[in-house]
Design a protein that fits this description.
Elements (H helix, E strand, L loop, with lengths): L1 E2 L8 E4 L2 E11 L7 E8 L5 E7 L3 E4 L2 E12 L2 E6 L5 E5 L14 E7 L4 E6 L3 E9 L12 E6 L4 E5 L7 E5 L4 E6 L2
Antiparallel strand pairs: 1-6, 2-3, 2-6, 3-4, 4-5, 7-8, 7-10, 8-9, 10-11, 12-13, 12-15, 13-14, 15-16
Length: 188
């Protein structure tokens, strides 16, 4: 068991039966009363950030999280199948654990976080940007780059992305996986 003196940013702890990472912390020694640690902690599964205060010296349970590199293979309904790039061992995780499942294309390299004690997958983080081919959109208009007008386009994974009017079917675009928004057109 560790104590609050072991706190550091990024440390994963068990709090109220759930896994949390420490976003920031500050040791406070008021003039009157016991010392305490003011923290901001982030839930590993939901991403919710809480402010919490721990009494100085209280025992905490540190948890180990490992990030492993996996390659996306295919999905079977809500189960997504991945292969470890080092051991070639296959695993599958639920759709809810993936940050942007609609933008995941076959062969994409992702980082899957595992809780070491239970060997359970906690989250699946995709690269910040993915390059996808537009499979369908209304015909584009040449030279129409001055306005911020957008139209819908369907990409190879089946997801719908808002793109500028000059994008055509067959163009490759860069999409931000955090927001699902168009970033730029990729030259071939």
């Amino acid at each position: 068991m560790a104590t609050t003196s072991d706190f550091r940013n990024g440390l994963c702890i068990e709090h109220n039966g759930e896994l949390w990472t420490i976003v920031e912390f500050q040791h406070v020694k008021p003039g009157k009363g016991p010392a305490f640690v003011r923290t901001k902690i982030k839930n590993v599964k939901t991403g919710k950030v809480l402010s919490n205060t721990f009494t100085s010296g209280v025992k905490i349970n540190i948890q180990r999280i490992e990030n492993r590199t996996y390659q996306y293979l295919y999905n079977d309904g809500d189960l997504y199948h991945f292969m470890n790039t080092e051991t070639y061992e296959q695993t599958f995780i639920n759709k809810e654990l993936i940050s942007a499942p609609g933008l995941l294309k076959e062969g994409e390299i992702v980082q899957i976080a595992f809780h070491v004690e239970t060997e359970a997958a906690i989250s699946c983080d995709m690269p910040t940007y993915v390059v996808l081919e537009v499979t369908y959109t209304e015909p584009g208009e040449k030279g129409n780059t001055a306005t911020n007008s957008m139209k819908e386009a369907t990409v190879k994974t089946g997801a719908t992305v808002k793109v500028p009017l000059f994008i055509n079917t067959g163009d490759k675009i860069k999409v931000d996986t955090r927001t699902g928004e168009y970033s730029e057109r990729v030259k071939a």
